[in-house]
Design goal:
With 167 residues, the protein is of the alpha+beta class. Helix content is 28%, strand content 31%. It is globular and about 40 Å long.
């Protein structure tokens, strides 16, 4: 598990329970960028979701802190029913005001480092079909369409897979 990773003025570390409101706010700002009609109001209490994710003993939430502010987040764990060497990246966001500054690349590298240390060999994720920016980011980092979960008619997400490099 990554305790802390310092890169220049950035610190990548595990998110703290008290940071759930800041994490939830960043999540909302990032998601708002790829919903053409605004964020769906489906009744999800995202603050409660993030509190639970941060406190989950079987999961992990990394955050990127720059100048005292959280500017990137990643949440992952083994999904229900998956092999132990598989991890699912449930959320991966960089604050839109901080895009194109290498934060996502550093956060992705920190995730991969942790997956390697945990003996993970495969990572999976779902990306929103309208989020072309994220799809391009993941493709640049080696993610490919998941052959076990091809796109289905009417689905709002694409399933991607990543082979975690061995050490």
């Amino acid at each position: 598990m990554i305790e802390e990773r310092v890169t220049g003025s950035r610190l990548i570390r595990t998110a703290l329970p008290a940071e759930a409101p800041a994490v939830a706010e960043l999540h909302a700002r990032a998601r708002a960028t790829y919903y053409p009609d605004g964020l769906p109001q489906d009744g999800t209490d995202w603050l409660a979701v993030w509190r639970a994710a941060i406190e989950r003993p079987d999961g992990h939430v990394l955050c990127v802190v720059e100048h005292g502010h959280i500017v990137g987040i990643a949440s992952f764990r083994t999904p229900e029913g998956a092999p132990a060497d598989t991890v699912k990246l449930f959320q991966f966001h960089v604050d839109p005001e901080h895009w194109r500054r290498g934060i996502g690349t550093e956060l992705h590298a920190a995730c991969v480092e942790e997956w390697q240390a945990d003996g993970r060999r495969t990572a999976v994720l779902d990306v929103h079909v309208d989020n072309r920016r994220a799809q391009a980011f993941y493709a640049r980092h080696g993610w490919v369409p998941d052959p076990e979960n091809p796109p289905a008619e009417g689905r709002h997400h694409l399933c991607l897979r990543y082979r975690v490099p061995g050490e």
